[in-house]
């Protein structure tokens, strides 16, 4: 994807550094606000509903408000997951295009009508499912 922007050797590192800086700034503000309204740490750790929902409940004293506030991080996770899947499938495709994977010819193909590396996307999804099953099975 970085190859698609003008002057990628200069703009790519700038974009990466800017993303890290923005993430650090917004993450710091989010964490400071959470720490200010968290309440007793023992209650947050031992909460059956999860620590973030418990902190939101401490801040709002409302179940409805807590759940609505919890939707914002969940929507962010949804968009982040879409970006991660796009990036990882494109990286897999580029690696296969350069002959770095077993069966590279299969994973280096771009779907003719969708215009995306479908085989690489399916490989990425399969790996995520396999590792997810291993994680769930080990706990």
Distance between the termini: 36 Å
SS class: mainly alpha
H/E order of the elements? HHHHHH
Mean pLDDT: 91
Subunit arrangement of the protein: single chain
Q: What is the tally of helical segments?
A: 6
Description:
The protein has 139 residues and is mostly helical. The protein contains six helices and no strands. The chain has helices at 8-37, 41-45, 51-60, 63-97, 104-107, 118-138. It is elongated.
Notable traits:
139 residues; 76% helix; elongated
How would you summarize what this structure contains?
The chain is mostly helical. 76% of the residues lie in helices and 0% in strands.
Question: Topology, please?
Answer:
Layout lengths: L7 H30 L3 H5 L5 H10 L2 H35 L6 H4 L10 H21 L1
Helix pairs in contact: 3-4, 4-6
């Amino acid at each position: 994807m970085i190859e698609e922007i003008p002057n990628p050797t200069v703009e790519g590192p700038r974009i990466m550094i800017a993303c890290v800086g923005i993430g650090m700034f917004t993450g710091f503000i989010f964490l400071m606000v959470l720490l200010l309204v968290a309440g007793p740490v023992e209650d947050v750790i031992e909460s059956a509903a999860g620590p973030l929902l418990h902190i939101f409940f401490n801040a709002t004293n409302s179940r409805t408000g807590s759940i609505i506030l919890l939707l914002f991080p969940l929507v962010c996770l949804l968009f982040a997951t879409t970006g991660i899947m796009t990036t990882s499938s494109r990286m897999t495709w580029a690696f296969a295009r350069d002959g770095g994977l077993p069966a590279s010819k299969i994973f280096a193909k771009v779907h003719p009508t969708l215009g995306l590396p479908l085989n690489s996307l399916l490989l990425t999804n399969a790996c995520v499912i396999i590792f997810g099953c291993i994680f769930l099975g080990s706990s």
